[in-house]
Write a structure and sequence with these properties.
The structure is a homodimer. The first copy, chain A, is α/β, with parallel strands linked by helices. Chain A folds into 2 domains: about 130 residues, 2-Layer Sandwich (Alpha-Beta Plaits), CATH 3.30.70.150; about 280 residues, Ribulose bisphosphate carboxylase, large subunit, C-terminal domain (TIM Barrel, Alpha-Beta Barrel), CATH 3.20.20. Chain A has 17 helices and 13 strands. Chain A has an 8-stranded parallel barrel with strand order 5-6-7-8-9-11-12-13, surrounded by 6 helices. In chain A, β6, α7 and β7 form a beta-alpha-beta unit. Chains A and B meet through α2, α3, α8, α9 and α10 of A and α2, α3, α8, α9 and α10 of B.
Chain lengths: ~425, ~425
């Protein structure tokens, strides 16, 4: 099997960059710390990863991570060199295999004391991965069709409080939001199949409301039921959602794993909403973990239709630049035009971020999810939703929000309520 | 459903510790950033996580992670307070559910800008988890029985080079090691089911050697075949291993995920060897991720029989203290005496670490895995293995290695070869 996997990393080390790049390449392919009889030149030529590029970055005085090897000449003289490096792994070592890809490109290399920082930035995968793995089943077009929303973002919310509501209380909130014309509602990642609000009862209560409303209005609210669970239960929950007429399921990606998501993808008849909770652990440190660009490729290949990207001016630690990069990453095809994921913009969104989001990404192919921004609107959730619609209309038409608000009282109220909070 | 889940964290923040602890508790239970109508006192009393303890630690001048909120009074006056905190989550929010537990105790909380560091240290789970999840099927006793090794560590090695060998070359190495009397051999995590060395052909070639040897000597080498793959393939690989008479399968835990491991556990007829590659990402930063103590509880509940713990004086970044804590964690029962995992000691091991390993852990219930330490022994792999046996005998009997070496030439050679390398 010919072909190669390229992996780009950001590293930091007090040793020579070339040496450390070679160590990383060796550790994650045919290299050994001590020479062994079987590591012949022929074997190395076939199986050893190669260092393709080294692009030096800045030099700093302090290591980013503990556990690095003692520099020669003593710690007080140490300089820590940063660089981006690209390694090339022979496809023949692993084949087109997602779980083994993970062990190869983000496995034991974080452990090496040769570096004081290592982060996987991006992956370039050969076509064999696109042939082997299904990718998203619905992506943007399929989701828009099911939600009945075109030419603007799919506007949604999260059931809040995250946990504590009964199925009936959840359904009551869905009724209020559905009557206000919402496109999309999702469970919180904390609300899965707990004894106080079982998936089965929640699906029954919520879908009764959604189906009744759809019969009346012709618009079916897309509700992402959190079916995160052990594998058999997750597939069963999916069937429960489908049998009740539901149009979306959600999973916490890190909780179910790539093989779990792939099983769901192969089984699923409706879009899969991928929640990235836990991702801060992968991403928050600039010299440890995995960047979103690499991360989202794995989950898309395994079948996620929607992927969380945080939002601009969010309530979390992440910068706007990083969020914009994530949105662009999800929208960039890998192997075919429709294997993109629909970016899910959320976290502290209330509509005020719509102009900047549109200016920087140039797209409305987004799910735009506001929690408090809708539910805590001073005129109630229905007005909160109208305010979001107004904000996006202004954003796309290039009208300043404040100007648009003069003729749109819900938007005016939302600006007064949330506009000063940051 | 009554009961609670306790989660202990190490945090760092420039805000008041009590406030941040409450924010974490709220974010991961019923709290919302903005008050919403449904968050009643009754709901909070039932669903909100509680702050049980706050134990302040040191105060530092620089934040551990970027993205923290701007401190009041400006960055130049900021102090960053560290603490250990314990949160109590109502079991009724999620039930005994491993995937949702992950989303709850190591989900979005890493994202919060209220802190500049957050690491999950330990979990205390209520009995409902022990009732729902199977735990290890073989653990120490079952593994010892299958390997036929008692009263000393199970001594093993890793096939090296990690990738590049054909099935026949792998089998040839297994023959050499098996004839030398080795107990255990494992695939490298990079060697799964690649086109150059498919699992099926490797199992056939290796088990032919192992079975022939067992017929002759009565001792069957335990070989951990790396069956990491998509779920259906993984279960099929397991059956291939069993059909050929194999006695162990290995998976890369982060590659298959908790639901993937659980499916394998429910299907499996032989011990599951859990490889932790990628774990450096969880562990290397003291204020980000998950400590081993918490981490290993999740994988044991889902069924791992063996868990990698690194080794003393290892080639990686980790301290001996951390490795010792990991060994103790694996050996501490959770819900029943036999739900421990067998610690797999590896990384740069050559026997010289045996006395200190035994002194600090007081146990031989270990798998002790040496790669180069056996395969690169100057007198060959068989002598490398005898040297390991001699080192452990000396360790347990309290004889200094150098003294034992005077009457054991293989140990003497190993000390000369590897003793000065650190």
């Amino acid at each position: 099997m010919r072909g190669a996997i390229l992996a780009r990393y950001r590293i930091e080390t007090c040793l020579p960059l070339e040496q450390v790049a070679e160590t990383l390449a060796g550790e994650q392919s045919s290299g050994t710390f001590l020479p062994v009889p079987g590591e012949t030149e022929a074997l190395k030529a076939q199986a050893r990863a190669k260092v393709l590029r080294i692009d030096p970055l800045e030099v700093v005085d302090q290591p980013s991570l503990p556990g690095g090897r003692q520099p020669r000449g003593g710690a007080e003289f140490a300089k820590f060199h940063r660089a981006e490096i690209t390694l090339e792994f022979p496809l023949a070592n692993l084949g087109a295999n997602l779980p083994t890809l993970v062990a190869t490109v983000c496995g034991n290399l974080y452990e090496l004391s040769d570096h004081t920082g290592c982060k996987l930035l991006d992956l370039d995968l050969p076509p064999a991965f696109g042939e082997k793995y299904p990718g998203p089943q619905f992506s943007v077009a399929g989701t828009r069709k099911l939600a009945g929303v075109h030419d603007r973002p799919i506007l949604g919310t999260i059931v809040k409080p995250s946990v504590g509501f009964t199925p009936e209380q959840t359904a009551e909130l869905v009724r209020e939001l559905g009557e206000a014309g919402i496109d999309f509602i999702k469970d919180d990642e904390l609300q899965a199949n707990g004894p106080s609000c079982s998936l089965r009862e929640r699906v029954a209560a919520v879908m009764r409301v959604i189906n009744t409303l759809a019969d009346r209005t012709g618009k079916k609210v897309m509700y992402a039921f959190n079916i995160t669970d052990d594998l058999d239960a997750m597939l069963r929950h999916h069937d429960t959602v489908c049998a009740a007429g539901g149009t979306c399921v959600m999973v916490s990606l890190h909780s179910v794993g790539l093989p779990g998501l792939l099983e769901l993808r192969r089984h699923s008849a409706i879009p899969i909403h991928g929640h990235r909770n836990g991702w801060g652990m992968y991403a928050r440190h600039p010299f440890l973990g995995v960047e979103y660009t690499a991360w989202q490729k794995l989950w898309r290949l395994a079948g996620a239709d929607h992927l969380h990207v945080n939002g601009l001016q969010n309530k979390f630690w992440e910068s706007d630049d990083s969020v914009v990069r994530s949105i662009q990453a999800c929208r960039t095809p890998m192997f075919r035009p429709d294997d993109t994921a629909m970016p899910v913009v959320s976290s502290g969104q209330w509509g005020g971020q719509a102009p900047e989001t549109y200016r920087r990404t140039g797209t409305t192919d987004l799910m735009y999810v506001a929690g408090g921004g809708i539910l805590a609107h001073p005129m109630g959730p229905a007005a909160g939703l109208r305010a979001l619609q107004q904000a996006w209309q202004a954003a796309v038409e290039g009208i300043p929000l404040a100007e648009h608000a003069t003729t749109h009282p819900e938007l005016m109220a939302t600006i007064h309520r949330f506009g000063g909070s940051r």
